[in-house]
Design brief:
By secondary structure, the protein is an alpha/beta fold. The chain has 15 helices and 25 strands. A ten-stranded mixed beta sheet has the order 12-10-13-15-24-23-22-19-20-25. Helix 5 runs parallel beside helix 6.
C-alpha cells in the first residue's frame, strides 16, 4: 500500500515542530492535497489543531497503547484516499519511556517506515547543528532522517552558514530555513496550545503559518521525501488477537439475561459534552462507540438540559478550570447529578471527573459542581499527574472487568481533596482502580495510588483511555446503556 508520509520530529520539546507541522499541513491542504495529520502520543490539543490544519478528522498514534500491527492498521485505515500523511512526533526523536527509547517517535517512524524530517532550534548555533544531525544519523538503526528544517534563524548569514554545515558535514539536505519570529503566532496555555474556544480564529492563524511555510520551505522537495516512503505491507490477519478477547471480557461483566435479546436491537443515544470546558476526546473513542451501536448526541454543559432522551453520557477531559463560574451557574450540574442518581450510565475522564465532584476550588474560591462524588478538586499551579498510566481493576464496576489491566494516560493540574469528615463517604463511592504507574487521585509519592470512582452506573477517573487499546470498553458501555434505558430519569 503506497502512502506518501513523513514524521516530523525535533531534538527536544519546544523545537518548533508543532508550529511547523500545522503550517505544513495547511500549506499542502491549500495546494489541493488530501492530507491526514496524526499526533504521536497521548494528546488532544495538538491533534485538534492538526485536524483543523488538514481539514480532516483528528487522529492519534501511540505505541504504548497499541502494538505495532494494530498501530499500522489504524494508520492504513485513516489514510485511505489521502495524498499525504503527516505525523507530528512528541518530545525528542529518540525520547521514550525508558533508556531504550521504547514508545519513542523514532519507534513510530520505524513501524510506519516513515521518513523523518527534523526541525532544529538553531538559536546561537551554526556548525554544532551539523554535529547534532550526524549524531542522530548514527544513533539508532532503521530511522531514515531524510531532511532538516532550520528553525529560529537570526539572519541570512546565520542561515547560510548553518545550511552549508549540515549539508556538507552531515550529508542531509536542508529543506527549509525558518526565521526567528518576533511574536508567537499561536498562544499557549498551561496544557499546551490555546483551547477550543480560540479555534474560531484558527483558520486565519493556520493560514498565516502556511504563508510562512510557503515562503521559507522547499515544499516540492518535502513532498518528494514523503513520496519516497516505501510501500507498507498489506494487512495481515493475526493468528491471535493482540489484546484479550473483548467478548470474553464482556462476558465477565454482569449482564441480566432478560435484557440480552432487546439489547441487540436497540440503538442507545449517548450524549457527549463538547464545548469550551469539556472537549478532550479521541476520535477513535467516539467512532468505537458508534461502531458498537451508539447514536452520539453532542451537547454543551453551558446550555439548558437537552430535551431528547439520553441513554448514556460521556464526559471527556478538558479545561473546566477556565470556565468554573459559567459551569457552576448553569442548570446542567443538577441535571447531570439527577441522571447519576437515577442510574444512567455515565463515563467521565479527568475534566469530566472534576465536573462530577462536589466543587472546584480555584485560588481559594469554591465553585459548586454536580456533586455526584463527595470530593472537592483543587486546581494547582503545576501538574499533579502527567504521563502514561497502568491500572489494575480491583473493584466491581460495569465498564471494566475486575482483574483487568488497563493502559491510559493522565495530564491534570488538579488534585482530589479529602472529603469533608462530617459529610461521610458513601461506601458506593470507593476507588475501583489501583495504579501501578501514575498519580490518579492519590497523594504525591503514594505507591499504587487509587483512581476510578463508582456511584450507581457512574464511573469517573483521572485516567484517559484510548478505545483501540481497550476493545471491550465501547461495546460494554453501549450494552449497558441499552440495558438501563428504562431507568426513571429526572
Amino acid at each position: 500500500m503506497l502512502i506518501p508520509r513523513l514524521l516530523v520530529s525535533g531534538l527536544a520539546g519546544g523545537a518548533g515542530k508543532t508550529m511547523f507541522s500545522l503550517g505544513l499541513a495547511r500549506a499542502f491542504r491549500r495546494s489541493g492535497l488530501a492530507v491526514r495529520a496524526f499526533k504521536k502520543g497521548p494528546d488532544y490539543i495538538d491533534a485538534a489543531w492538526l485536524a483543523l490544519a488538514a481539514r480532516a478528522p483528528r487522529a492519534n498514534l501511540d505505541p504504548f497503547f497499541t502494538p505495532a500491527d494494530v498501530l499500522l492498521d489504524l494508520f492504513r485505515e485513516r489514510c485511505i484516499a489521502c495524498d499525504l500523511a503527516l505525523i507530528e512526533g512528541n518530545r525528542g526523536l529518540f525520547d521514550g519511556l525508558d533508556a531504550n527509547g521504547s514508545c519513542s517517535s523514532a519507534e513510530v517512524a520505524r513501524i510506519l517506515k516513515a521518513p523523518v524530517l527534523l526541525v532544529l532550534d538553531c538559536t546561537k548555533m551554526t556548525r554544532t547543528v551539523a554535529a547534532l544531525v550526524r549524531g542522530c544519523l548514527n544513533f539508532e538503526p532503521d530511522v531514515n532522517i531524510a531532511g532538516v528544517v532550520l528553525n529560529r534563524i537570526g539572519n541570512k548569514r546565520h542561515g547560510e552558514m548553518t545550511k552549508r554545515a549540515v549539508e556538507d558535514l552531515a550529508g542531509v539536505p536542508v529543506l527549509g530555513i525558518l526565521p526567528r519570529l518576533l511574536r508567537p503566532i499561536i498562544l499557549e496555555r498551561h496544557m499546551g496550545l490555546a483551547g477550543i474556544d480560540e479555534l474560531a480564529q484558527a483558520d486565519s492563524v493556520l493560514d498565516e503559518l502556511a504563508d510562512l511555510m510557503e515562503e521559507h520551505l522547499d515544499l516540492p522537495a518535502i513532498r518528494r521525501v514523503a513520496s519516497a516512503a516505501p510501500p507498507l505491507p498489506a494487512r495481515k490477519r493475526a493468528a491471535a488477537p493482540p489484546h484479550p478477547d473483548p467478548e470474553n471480557l464482556r462476558r465477565s461483566l454482569p449482564v441480566p439475561e432478560r435484557d440480552r435479546s432487546r439489547a441487540k436491537k436497540e440503538r442507545p443515544r449517548i450524549g457527549y459534552a463538547f464545548d469550551a470546558a469539556i472537549w478532550f476526546y479521541y476520535q477513535e473513542n467516539l467512532e468505537a462507540l458508534e461502531k458498537a451501536g451508539a447514536q452520539l448526541v453532542q451537547l454543551s454543559l453551558f446550555a439548558p438540559p437537552p430535551k431528547g432522551r439520553l441513554d448514556g453520557l460521556y464526559l471527556g477531559g478538558g479545561l473546566p478550570e477556565l470556565h468554573a463560574a459559567r459551569l457552576s451557574a448553569s442548570p446542567m450540574p443538577a441535571y447531570v447529578a439527577g441522571l447519576a442518581r437515577a442510574g444512567l450510565p455515565i463515563y467521565a475522564e479527568c475534566g469530566g471527573f472534576m465536573y462530577l465532584a462536589r466543587s472546584l476550588v480555584l485560588e481559594g474560591l469554591s465553585y459548586p459542581m454536580a456533586g455526584v462524588f463527595p470530593f472537592c478538586v483543587e486546581f494547582c499551579d503545576r501538574p499533579q499527574g502527567l504521563g502514561y498510566v497502568e491500572a489494575e481493576v480491583i473493584g466491581d464496576n460495569p465498564y471494566h472487568p475486575k482483574g483487568a489491566l488497563l493502559r491510559g494516560h493522565e495530564f491534570h493540574f488538579s488534585r482530589c481533596l479529602p472529603p469533608d469528615p462530617q459529610a461521610g463517604v458513601d461506601p458506593d463511592r470507593k476507588a475501583v482502580l489501583r495504579l501501578n504507574k501514575g498519580r490518579g487521585m492519590g497523594e504525591e509519592g503514594q505507591i499504587q495510588p487509587p483512581d476510578g470512582l463508582l456511584f450507581n452506573n457512574t464511573f469517573a477517573a483521572y485516567m484517559h483511555i484510548y478505545a483501540p487499546a481497550l476493545p471491550h470498553w465501547a461495546p460494554t458501555f453501549v450494552d449497558l446503556c441499552r440495558r438501563e434505558r428504562d431507568v426513571s430519569l429526572p
